[in-house]
Design brief:
Blueprint: H1 3-24, E1 26-28, E2 37-40, E3 46-50, E4 54-58, E5 65-70, H2 77-87, E6 96-100, E7 103-107, E8 112-113, H3 114-120, H4 126-141, E9 154-157, E10 160-163, H5 177-193, H6 202-224
Antiparallel strand pairs: 1-2, 3-4, 4-5, 5-7, 6-7, 8-9, 9-10
Length: about 230
């Protein structure tokens, strides 16, 4: 597809979003630590996923594109647009073609999230983890600070790793989620999965996710406590 045809197609998709999708899409989000709820979306749109701030959908007439719609009152669209501007063209990241109002038009990344790989018993090769690590290093090289990179925000496609969500890459506070994931992968997942592979039940994965959230909150609180001064 030539550049002019792509621009025309994106403009048509934007018109579809403004005229049909936004008027019928219903998003709800109460807990900032949990994904928003997609209560309703019109046909023939397909829901690709939902994060803490936005839902991602696609339209069958516009393959290769994903529309990310932010819920009312949720911040982040302007920051995400800036992140994509800084990232430019990189094989492990999407591309932002349009950003205005409450939504962005992105290049759709194909694949299976690492979280779903765990659920379905799909082996996650070392190459995919290396790809994501290199993508993190690239992001740092252009002035970004990768944040909130976890199993639901990274994908496996044809043995390679992709980063799906970059909306928090402008945050300045440190984030150890990806480092913690790599440790779990190296010490626990790979030694077991390289010998025997099996699907992990959803309730167990959710238990691990909730437990990790609790661990992170406690660690942050510990760091914020004033130092103990021994009494004379």
């Amino acid at each position: 597809m030539d550049q002019l045809s792509k621009v025309c197609q994106i403009n048509q998709l934007v018109e579809q979003v403004n005229k049909h999708l936004l008027s019928e899409l219903v998003l709800e989000g109460k807990d900032p630590l949990e994904p928003i709820q997609v209560v309703h979306y019109p046909e023939p749109w397909t829901l690709l996923g939902a994060g803490n701030y936005a839902a991602v959908l696609s339209h069958p007439d516009y393959p290769g594109y994903a529309v990310k719609v932010y819920a009312a009152g949720k911040p982040g669209l302007e920051a995400e647009r800036e992140v994509y501007r800084l990232l430019g063209d990189h094989p492990s990241y999407s591309t932002c073609y349009y950003a205005d109002g409450p939504f962005l038009v992105l290049k759709q990344l194909m694949g299976t999230t690492i979280y779903d790989c765990f659920k379905r018993g799909i082996f996650i090769p070392e190459q995919a983890v290396c790809d994501i690590e290199q993508a993190m290093q690239y992001a740092r090289s252009v002035g970004l600070r990768p944040h909130d990179v976890h199993a639901k925000n990274v994908m496996l496609y044809q043995g390679r790793g992709l980063v799906v969500d970059v909306s928090d890459f402008l945050k300045q506070e440190p984030c150890r989620m990806w480092d913690d994931f790599k440790k779990a992968y190296d010490r626990l997942y790979y030694p077991i999965a390289s010998r025997i592979l099996f699907p992990i039940p959803s309730f167990l994965l959710e238990g691990v996710r909730k437990g990790y959230q609790l661990y992170r909150r406690r660690r942050r609180k510990t760091k914020q406590l004033p130092p103990h001064v021994p009494q004379a």
